[in-house]
Amino acid sequence: MADHAEPRPANQGILKSLLISVSLVSGLVLVVAALSLLSEPDKRSVERRLLIEKHDKMRLDMTVAEVDGLMEGHPREEHRGGTEILKLGGRRLPRPCLFYVTYDGKPGATEGDYYLMAFFEKEGRLVEKGLDDYLK
Question: To the nearest whole number, what is the mean pLDDT of the chain?
Fold first, then answer.
C-alpha cells in the first residue's frame, strides 16, 4: 500500500494564492480588451455615417420635398432618362420609377466617397433608396 502524503498547508496556501492571482489577471485582461473594443472609434468617415443616418430616416412614400428637406446641405443631382426605371442593381424595384436623385456625402465627392440614391415614381413618392460609393 502506497503512502499518500497530504499536501502541506503551506503548499495549499501558495497554490490558492497563485490561482487567485491568475484569475485576477485574466479578468483584468478581459476588462481591458472589452474597454478597448468599446472605445474604438468608428472607422467610417463622418460623411458616410451621416448618410447612413439619413438613409435610415427615409421612409417609403416620402415626397421629393420631404427627402430634399432631410438631405438639406448635401449636393443634389436629379436624373431623368425619359423611361421608367424598373431595376436597381439587378433587383426589381417595388414600383416603376420615373427619376432618381443622388445626394453626395460631401461637396466635390470623388472616387471612394459615398452617395445616397432616392428613386421616385411619377407622383413624386419615394419607392426605393440606396447607399453606395463612387468606384475607385
Answer: 81
The two beta strands, 91-104 and 126-133, are: unpaired
Q: Which amino acid, one-letter code, is at 96?
A: P
Whole-number pLDDT of residue 111: 86
Phi, psi of 15 (to 5 degrees): -60, -45
pLDDT at 48: 87
100: Cα separation from own chain's centroid:
23
Of 127 and 34, which is predicted with more confidence? 127
**Three-state secondary structure along the chain?**
CCCCCCCCHHHHHHHHHHHHHHHHHHHHHHHHHHHHHHCCCCCCCHHHHHHHHHHHHCCCCCEHHHHHHHCCCCCEEEEEEEEEEEEECCEEEEEEEEEEEEEECCCCCCCCCEEEEEEECCCCEEEEEEEEECCC
